[in-house]
Amino acid sequence: MFCTIVLTACVSTSTEKTVDFSYTICADSGINPDINGDASSIVVQVFQLANSGNYEAALYEELFNGDVSVLGSELLAVSRHLIDPGTSQTFNTEISANTKFIGVAAGYREIDLVTWKVIEPVAEESLLDSVNVFRDRGMTISVTP
After folding, report:
1. What is the spatial distance between Cα 144 and Cα 126, in angstroms, rounded to a whole number?
2. How many helices and strands (H and E) does the chain possess?
3. Cβ partners under 8 Å of residue 5, min gap 6
């Protein structure tokens, strides 16, 4: 049971260098089970970061309590999405060319049993093609240059 995020990027031609950024979050029908094993919605956050240190050090509670000040000036933007089991949603946005890392954090119920956050560097004009959020194993993220 898993959730998949597919992210794509391409450079915009406007004066301020931005990147058109599109990502799809797909949740498996059994994602984020409760105590009875029933699937439930999951919050997925996508962070645009200028650096990685604060994100890597951040605790679950710090990223999911609504106050991401722990990320300081490294945080360029964050998108939060509530994804229902068995659904897929696509999001389109622009990101700053200053975005050097993409972090993805998923609001699992049992964070001690999964990889709940990942981060990857994003080289200029690279394609961040997928993030898989698995029910039992957590997330993986891959970047294709």
Report:
1. 6
2. 2, 9
3. 23, 24, 25, 26, 44, 46, 104, 130, 131, 132, 133
What topology does CATH give the domain 2-144?
A: Immunoglobulin-like (2.60.40)
- The tokens for 105 are 């954090």
Residue 56 CB partners (closer than 8 Å, separation 6+): 119
Domain-wise residue ranges, the chain: 2-144
d(CA 142, CA 128): 6
For the chain, the distance separating the N- and C-terminal CA atoms, rounded to the nearest angstrom, is: 28
Do the beta carbons of residue 123 and residue 111 sit within 8 Å?
no
pTM for this predicted structure: 0.79
Distances (CA, A) of 22 to 31, 54, 94, 127: 22, 25, 8, 10
Distance CA 13, CA 18 (A): 8
Question: Which amino acid appears at position 118 of this protein?
Answer: V
Q: Is the pLDDT of residue 61 over 80?
A: yes
Given this model, what pLDDT does residue 10 score?
45
SS3 of 79-109: the string is EEEEECCCCEEEEEEEEECCCCEEEEEECCC
